[in-house]
């Protein structure tokens, strides 16, 4: 017992951590030996099904997922910037409109917004479709929801820029609008770039909700395609492959977020 008490805190921490790692490895080993890998392979990694999925799952459906995500993000970013500036405006009606919008779309599930745009607009306006067809509908429905979150992120970034930056620009004869565009916003976007990249990752996963729109074969994204293939092959392999395709998109973005956060921390 005396020897145990003589151990330093760092040594005890290392011993406890090593024991935890050992238990974790032991549990994984037990699961690995107990699992029926043949059945897992047939259910989730059927090579014949995988061959049937490629290359279309990458060349068409992965591309569609990226396209829907990027267009929705671009729409949401522009609208989010406008809403952030409205939140900070000295004109009360602008602030009220922005507040109502942000609270509404942050509280409403994206699924309901997609249904409203995909089915509500055609029903309300005699079969009229949203400009841009399927792509326009997806970009608007996902972008409207994303804009509410990005507006708050951008607003926080603008407020994080020291007030002296605006005052210095105004003292040089710049108008408030020019100072905001040339001085404040570039600094704000450097601050909020990591959380905006996180929003892009969330949008990538939210794009799976567009299956409700009844997409054509060429308009399907990864989630819709994998569901259809699940029914066709009666195998979970398409779901697993689609999940790996999502990782192809999100893992590099997550790495980018960590790099941006580390860069911002060093800049401080």
UniProtKB/TrEMBL annotation:
Keyword check for Nucleotide-binding = no
Q: Which Gene3D superfamilies match?
A: MetI-like
Its placement in the membrane is given as: Multi-pass membrane protein
The membrane-spanning stretches of this chain are: 21-38, 58-83, 104-125, 137-158, 179-197, 233-257
Q: Where is the ABC transmembrane type-1 domain?
A: 62-257
Entries under InterPro entries matching the protein = AA_ABC_transptr_permease_3TM, ArtM/GltK/GlnP/TcyL/YhdX-like, MetI-like, MetI-like_sf
Gene Ontology biological process: amino acid transport
Pfam families, per database record: BPD_transp_1
Protein name (Swiss-Prot/TrEMBL) = Amino acid ABC transporter permease
Q: Which organism is it from?
A: Virgisporangium aurantiacum
């Amino acid at each position: 017992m005396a020897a145990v008490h003589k151990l330093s805190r760092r040594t005890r921490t290392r011993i406890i951590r090593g024991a935890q790692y050992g238990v974790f490895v032991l549990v994984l080993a037990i699961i690995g030996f107990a699992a029926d890998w043949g059945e897992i392979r047939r259910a989730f990694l059927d090579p014949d099904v995988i061959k049937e999925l490629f290359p279309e799952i990458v060349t068409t459906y992965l591309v569609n997922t990226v396209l829907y995500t990027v267009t929705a993000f671009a729409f949401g970013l522009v609208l989010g910037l406008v809403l952030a500036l409205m939140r900070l405006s000295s004109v009360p009606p602008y602030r009220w409109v922005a507040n109502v919008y942000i609270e509404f779309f942050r509280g409403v599930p994206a699924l309901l917004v997609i249904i409203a745009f995909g089915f509500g607009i055609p029903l309300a306006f005699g079969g009229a479709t949203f400009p841009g067809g399927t792509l326009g509908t997806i970009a608007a429905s996902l972008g409207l929801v994303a804009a509410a979150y990005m507006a708050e992120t951008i607003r926080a970034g603008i407020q994080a820029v020291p007030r002296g930056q605006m005052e210095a620009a105004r003292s040089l004869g710049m108008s408030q609008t020019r100072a905001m565009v040339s001085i404040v916003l570039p600094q704000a976007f450097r601050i909020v770039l990591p959380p905006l990249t996180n929003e892009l990752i969330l949008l990538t996963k939210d794009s799976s909700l567009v299956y409700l729109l009844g997409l054509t074969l060429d308009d399907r994204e990864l989630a819709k395609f994998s569901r259809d293939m699940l029914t066709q092959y009666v195998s979970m392999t398409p779901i697993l492959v689609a999940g790996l395709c999502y990782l192809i998109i999100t893992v590099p973005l997550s790495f980018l977020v960590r790099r941006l956060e580390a860069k911002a921390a060093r800049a401080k």
